[in-house]
Write a structure and sequence with these properties.
Blueprint lengths: L8 H30 L4 E2 L5 E4 L2 E4 L9 E6 L11 H8 L3 H9 L2 E7 L3 H11 L5 E3 L5 H4 L3 E3 L6 E2 L2 E2 L9 E3 L2 E8 L2 E9 L8 H6 L30
């Protein structure tokens, strides 16, 4: 395991101040990026999507729960799966009822959507002790239209806004994780944003905290090299 260099407090402070300049620039860059995200145009939802939830079948506008905005987390949980994917599960584990309450105070609702049947969703949520609003898109085009399911038979082979004809290999379909945002104006619903892949990883509390540390996320792709165990997830021995 490669650790940071050991220096004096004065040398560390000088290096820290130099990094602070870059951090402040990154903050300004992030603010500018967020502003550009808010300037994105939006698309009117013309199709009626019928999802299934605890109270039976509902249309997409019901997920707003009276709010003006809606954030949907696309949870990887296929119709023939017995559990949601571990990564999505970890992300949901980091959530709290307080998060939903804070979003609601800003006129924004939050809901999970998967393609698994509602019975499987409710069984899994119960085992995890989750009470978040979670809906099934099993009999809907929702996942396909918003590219949360990549499927050969449906001709939906786009992931993260790129054509990915080879990503399925021998499989016919797969679920992918992401987030989509919607805005409601009167009786009309609009799609404003969706993010996939690395576009979502900053949303989790664990990654955001690990990014502050010397060892980071301890994954092989990170720089500087040598700060991840050879077998990620195994008991680290910190040997090279």
């Amino acid at each position: 395991m490669a650790y940071p260099d050991v220096v004096t407090r004065e040398e560390w402070l000088a290096a820290r101040k130099q990094l602070l300049v870059q951090e402040k620039q990154a903050t300004r860059d992030r603010d500018a990026l967020n502003a550009e995200r808010r300037r994105l145009p939006m698309v009117r939802i013309e199709k009626e999507y019928v999802l299934e939830g605890p109270d039976g079948q509902v249309t997409l506008d019901a997920l707003f729960d009276g709010s003006r905005q809606l954030i949907v987390q696309h949870v990887m949980f296929g119709p023939d799966w017995e559990a949601a994917c571990p990564g999505c599960t970890a992300a949901i584990d980091e959530m709290s009822a307080g998060l939903l309450a804070h979003l609601k105070s800003r006129d924004t609702a939050f809901a999970l959507v998967s393609r698994a049947p509602l019975e499987k969703i409710e069984k899994y949520a119960s085992a995890k002790g989750w009470t978040y609003p979670w809906y099934s898109a099993h009999d809907s085009d929702f996942n396909f239209d918003f590219q949360a399911t990549v499927d050969k038979t449906r001709g939906q082979l786009v992931y993260n806004y790129r054509d990915e004809p080879d990503m399925l290999g021998d499989k016919d379909s797969t679920e992918v994780p992401g987030f989509s945002c919607f805005l409601r104006d009167g009786g009309q619903v609009f799609h404003t944003y969706s993010a996939w892949a690395r576009g979502t990883d900053f949303l989790g509390g664990t990654y955001s905290l690990l990014d502050l540390t010397a060892l980071g996320r301890q994954e092989e792709w990170e720089e500087p090299k040598g700060r991840a165990p050879r077998v990620h997830g195994a008991d680290p021995t910190f040997t090279d």
